[in-house]
Write a structure and sequence with these properties.
Blueprint lengths: L5 E5 L4 H12 L3 E6 L8 E5 L5 H14 L5 E4 L14 H11 L1 H17 L2 E6 L3 H4 L5 H21 L4 E8 L5 H4 L3 H10 L8 H12 L10 E4 L8
Parallel strand pairs: 1-2, 1-4, 2-3, 4-5, 5-6, 6-7
Helix pairs in contact: 1-9, 2-4, 3-6
Bound molecules: NADPH dihydro-nicotinamide-adenine-dinucleotide phosphate.
């Protein structure tokens, strides 16, 4: 599935985003990653951007366009958690998570859209989570922001689907990364008991699905939610 198209991955300095960027580099794509800190993997162009800041997102795209060309594949991956039960959740806990996970996708995809329309080709891939549709105690902010990405991709599909542009959601389950490393050992064991595969996934297992969605083989798939969760969320 090699290609020399231009890809932008948000939050490509670590975790799942980094693995996605590596996968695209290996397949020959021209890859840019946004990072607030650190650098993307070898072979990528790293641009600084906080996805809560529309001006920073705009500047990052301009730099990528100048150095690599118009962005054709956008992967909105940057995300955060701020877990606590509803009664303890502050306005800021809620707003900051939604502003990053949902607002970030909005800013990045909006900035990319004109270029995709001009090219009459595009791939929008939004990284959601199994908990967006499964629900999760202590994650009302996070789960809400992640399920909203489904409405986002499906609305975008209706707006741009006739122009060679697809928009899909990838919903990982528990994946080994910094985000899950902070979970206490007994919580991890309890989660694994509920996952039919009996284990957490690897970042590469998400990256493979994302790169496939970007390929020509997935040209007729749009508005889909693709779980990568070892069977945890069956029934999405
Ligand atoms: P990590 O915590 O390892 O990485 C998160 C990434 O998002 C980092 O690159 C981080 O940048 C970036 N980021 C966070 N906030 C912002 C911001 N405001 N602007 C720009 N970048 C930002 O998480 P994962 O790799 O595990 O998660 C990646 C995505 O996958 C997230 O959307 C997450 O919700 C989702 N996901 C993860 C699962 C898991 O089990 N790990 C399960 C389901 C979904 P920085 O280094 O600068 O902080």
């Amino acid at each position: 599935m090699s290609s020399d198209r231009v890809v932008l991955v948000t939050g490509g300095n670590r975790g799942i985003g980094r693995a996605i960027a590596e996968r695209f580099v290996a397949a020959g794509y021209k890859v840019a990653v946004t990072a607030r800190s650190g650098e993307g993997p070898a072979g990528t162009l790293t641009v600084r951007a906080d996805v809560t800041d529309a001006a920073a997102v705009d500047a990052a795209f301009t730099e990528v366009e100048q150095q690599l060309g118009p962005v054709e594949i956008v992967v909105a991956n940057a995300g955060v958690t701020k877990d606590t039960l509803l009664l303890r959740m502050t306005e800021d806990d809620f707003d900051s998570v939604v502003a990053t996970n949902l607002g970030g996708a909005f800013r990045v995809v909006k900035r990319a859209a004109k270029g995709l329309l001009r090219a009459k080709w595009g791939r929008v891939i939004l990284i959601s989570s199994v908990v967006g549709l499964y629900g999760s105690a202590g994650q009302i902010n996070y789960a809400s922001s992640k399920s909203a990405l489904v409405g986002f991709a499906r609305s975008l599909t209706r707006e741009l689907g006739s122009r060679g542009i697809t928009a899909n959601v990838v919903a990982p389950g528990f994946i080994e990364s910094d985000m899950t490393a902070v979970l206490p050992e007994d919580t991890q064991t309890e989660y694994k008991r509920n996952i039919p595969a009996g284990r957490f996934g690897g970042v590469d297992e998400v990256a493979g699905v994302v790169s496939w969605l970007a390929s020509d083989d997935a040209a007729y798939i749009s508005g889909a939610v693709i779980p990568v969760d070892g069977g945890l969320g069956m029934g999405h």
